[in-house]
Amino acid sequence: MELSQLSLKNFRNYDQAELNFQSGINVFLGENAQGKTNLLESIYALALARSHRTKTDKDLIQWGQSEAKIAGRVTNRFGKTPLSLSWSAKGKQARVNHLDQSRLSTYIGQLNVILFAPEDLDLVKGAPTVRRRFIDIEFGQMNRLYLQQSAQYKKILKDRNAYLKAWAQGKQQDQVFLDVLTEQLITVASQIILARRQFLLKLEEQALLIHQEVANQREELRLAYQAAVPVMEGETAEQIAANLQEVFQKNADREKRQGTTLAGPHRDDFTMLVNGKDVSVFGSQGQQRTAALALKLGEIELMHQETGEYPVLLLDDVLSELDAGRQTHLLLAIQDKVQTFITAPSLTEVARQLIKEPKIFLVKAGHVKVEE
């Protein structure tokens, strides 16, 4: 899978931009605050219909303008597909082959991307919400059903929490209606938990091999899913639902007092274990970075396994955060395999030695030109 063309209009600090990319490695070079990361953000948004830097869509519209648009042409094994995304006072509009998409779940997956930025080290040592978001974004690109289930779960959870909040405030509520919401939530939750566990098992399989390579076979990486209920190998969604039912019954009075749902996928987590120990607690910074790198490179292979296509890789100023050994593993892993976009003030010595014929774009104050 490749992004061959990209056009921007009134996006962030870009009035207008038209870019053509090569299949291999494309590099955006420039000083800080010139617009390099904005270009990566536009590719990410084109793929996922959302920014990785802000939750507020109007932040993407250039100051003083009323609308913004990004468009691109994706090439995959089925042919070429034009995509576009626009923001205005009317909201967000996504198009595939120039046709409006009423649901984002039908749009996402046309262009698969993996972003690796310095803050992705928080995957190892950050809050559980970072790791839940990681699963939802990456697995959601590979599995449209999971994307739909996640959206359904969030809607039911919102309704249930609103009902519980009213209960906690002393307003008389209908127990039967709460039971219906609980049953609906448990049904979807059990499907999500099972899907997440299967995703992490597959990701572990890929990341384990990469991690052993980077760590010179001295360390073993494992991923442990932590759900509201233990999930055993071979367990079905129905069995998980039955176990969840017990948890919800146990929490029933406390939820009414606290006005919120106390268990479910919205509170789950996963742990990265190196040689059996939680690397976020017992690992050195080098071990944490190796685990994060292995996870990201494992994603690339898993996405290829699941979709038949390699994703587009976005590296936002990440090379300078890795030592020479980890830079080498990263660049050799993607060379001649994954279309890659790199942002950096300048290329490191390792990158200049390893990257074969990069296409270099010079970025300055929202203007881009190809290096001669």
From TrEMBL:
It is found in: Cytoplasm. The keyword Oxidoreductase does not apply. Transmembrane segments: none annotated. GO terms for cellular component: cytoplasm. ATP binds at G30, E31, N32, A33, Q34, G35, K36, T37. Its main location: cytoplasm. Keywords: ATP-binding, Cytoplasm, DNA damage, DNA repair, DNA replication, DNA-binding, Nucleotide-binding, SOS response. Belongs to the RecF family. HAMAP family: RecF (MF_00365). NCBIfam families: recf. The RecF protein is involved in DNA metabolism; it is required for DNA replication and normal SOS inducibility. RecF binds preferentially to single-stranded, linear DNA. It also seems to bind ATP. This is DNA replication and repair protein RecF. It comes from Fructobacillus pseudoficulneus. The lineage of its organism: Bacteria, Bacillati, Bacillota, Bacilli, Lactobacillales.
